[in-house]
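User: What would this chain look like folded?
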Amino acid sequence: MKAVLLDVMNDKVEVVDAEELEDYYKLIGCRTIEIVNWEIMDRRFDIVCDEEGLFFENPKISSIDDKGNVMSVGNLVVCGEADDNGKLTSLSDEDVRHIMENIKIVPTKFYPDGYRMICHVNP
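Assistant: Here's the prediction, encoded as structure tokens.
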């Protein structure tokens, strides 16, 4: 299944193949994940987030809303919305382009040079 990995820890973005729950843990690099259904600039996606990210000092923000409020921290994987059976779905090429267009380099208090994060993310 085609998904987009935003690796804020290494400041990189890549299209990845993720099929199983173990894939998300490995890609994100954590032990606890959360799956949320949010909009990225008016299009809905399922986003697999690092649920442990806030346990670390000065966590790296991975997504912000339209007003610059923090939506998630740590690495994340963006997938297509779950099907009727609850299984996450693959992104289309157009979905990937849309997500990439909304990834911007944003400076923060603790990282003033900035790094990549997804902007315009809303519940």
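The CA atoms of residues 36 and 47 lie 5 Å apart. If you want, I can go into more detail on any region.
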